[in-house]
Write a structure and sequence with these properties.
This protein is of the alpha/beta class. It has 16 helices and 19 strands. It binds flavin mononucleotide (FMN).
């Protein structure tokens, strides 16, 4: 999605560069809009290089509109700005999914609150219908001033979102409240603000596991599996896009994990077990997409096992069944029971086995995955699954793991909706 990142004239303007990068890592496009004062703190060229778009520093300099218009529609991108008669800030106002201002000065807060539109950013604020998120930053006395506080209240009442300034050492030499929130916090707030307003995952805690586990035989050898982590990563990213607070528990994978509120790296099934049981406390949804080893060497050697004549016998013992344990713990939990979603990776009798596993482990949903197909399951970008619940079964045809993740989370949201409605019916 396209985000307008407003940068205003505060000392924290340099941190907007990191905010910009964070938004891009979440797959968003950014157009930077700088006030005249902001350009005295950071050079527009920096944002231009990072966003790969012209930076808007004045309403009297046309340019970016042509490109934006081409992205929004099938109109020719070569059409000169003025011949269309579009007005730059109006065109951008229509094209953005979010207006984020970080840092936001007392001055811009005042202008937004009072409808003053004397530059591009303040005109854009009035022209856009996109959600607005501000990260104020200023000296503590400025922040505490009645005028600023009143302006903040006016904006809050209008539905504007805020990323609260933090306490700490201020550029003016003071220590107090007014410091720009840290860039990851601003990025998380922006991602949440972009979540579909009607998503039931908004604000919920979702724990997702991903990837394989490695069970050590000795210090140099292990038993692993072919899971790449792609499916779990896609689920974590989609849950976050829908506004959930995501904890990702990831086994050893080559792929970089998506952004999450918390990422716990584990290696073995035992580590995965500890991380999930700890993280599941307080979770609303637990999705176990990881391929956790069922067996682990009973007695891993502390030194490298030497080659010997003849066969080598390895004794394996069962690893803890994490999902079954979570399923058994459900009735005892005071904090309410999370929705439990498991995966059944099978190569034969996929649906009957998955059904049986769902009942045996006390799961709400099971995602049956035929991993014998070349285009589904482990280490490919696509998947085809069947999502099986208590009373329903949904076939999700072959498509990208990102889209499969969206289909699975649609089912999770349906369950959340049904749960919310259940007491009303009773
Ligand atoms: C070194 C320096 C640092 C400043 N830091 C801030 C700040 O953090 N917050 C703020 O509201 N104003 C700050 N100001 C004052 C603003 O730059 C000033 O109000 C300016 O008019 C803001 O313009 P703008 O809101 O259009 O970007 C600072 C000024 C200077 C010279």
């Amino acid at each position: 999605m396209l985000i307008a990142l407003g940068v205003t004239g505060g000392i924290g303007a340099y941190k907007a560069v990191e905010v910009c990068r964070g938004l891009q890592k979440h797959g968003h496009d950014v157009v930077a809009v700088m006030t005249r004062s902001a350009a005295r703190f950071v050079g527009p060229v920096t944002f231009e290089a990072i966003t790969r778009r012209p930076v808007i520093t004045s309403q009297w300099k046309p340019g970016i509109n042509t490109r934006l218009r081409a992205e929004r529609s099938d109109e020719a991108s070569t059409e000169p700005w003025r011949s269309r008669g579009d007005i730059e800030h109006i065109a951008i106002a229509d094209g953005i999914a979010l207006l984020l201002v970080a840092p936001c000065t007392a001055n811009v807060i005042g202008k937004f609150a009072n409808g003053i539109a004397d530059d591009f950013l303040t005109s854009l604020y009035l022209a856009t219908r996109a959600p607005v998120l501000l990260a104020p930053a200023m000296n503590s006395n400025m922040l505490a001033h009645e005028a600023v506080q009143r302006n903040l209240q006016v904006l809050a009442a209008r539905g504007v979102g805020f990323v609260e300034p933090g306490e700490g050492y201020l550029a003016c030499g003071w220590i107090g409240k007014g410091r720009l929130a840290e860039p990851p916090e601003i990025v998380s707030a922006a991602v949440r603000a972009l979540a579909p307003a009607d998503s039931l995952l908004r604000g919920r805690r979702v724990l997702v596991t991903a990837g394989p586990t490695y069970e050590d035989i000795d210090p140099v050898r292990y038993i692993g599996n072919r899971s790449s982590g792609r499916m779990g990563f896609a689920l974590a990213a989609e849950a976050r896009r829908r506004g959930a607070r995501v904890t990702l528990v990831a086994g050893p994978t080559r792929l970089a994990p998506p952004a999450a509120d918390e990422i716990v790296r584990v290696r073995s099934a035992a580590e995965m077990h500890a991380a999930v049981l700890g993280g599941a406390e307080g979770a609303d949804v637990v999705i176990m997409a990881a391929a956790v080893a069922d067996y682990t060497p009973a007695d891993p050697a502390s030194h490298k096992v030497s080659k010997q004549d003849g066969p080598l016998t390895l004794t394996l013992e069962r690893t803890p069944d994490i999902l079954a344990e979570l399923g058994r713990a459900r009735p005892r939990r005071a904090s309410g029971s999370p929705i439990l979603v498991g995966f059944a990776a099978e190569t034969a009798d996929v649906i009957p086995r998955a059904r049986e596993k769902r009942t045996r482990k006390g799961l709400d949903l099971i995602v049956a995955n035929d991993v014998s197909r070349a285009d589904a399951g482990f280490d490919v970008g696509t998947n085809v699954v069947t999502v099986i619940g208590d009373e329903r079964q949904r076939e999700v045809p072959l498509q990208s793991k990102e889209r499969v993740a969206a289909a699975i989370l649609d089912e999770v949201e349906d369950l959340l909706r049904a749960r919310a409605a259940a007491p009303a019916r009773a």
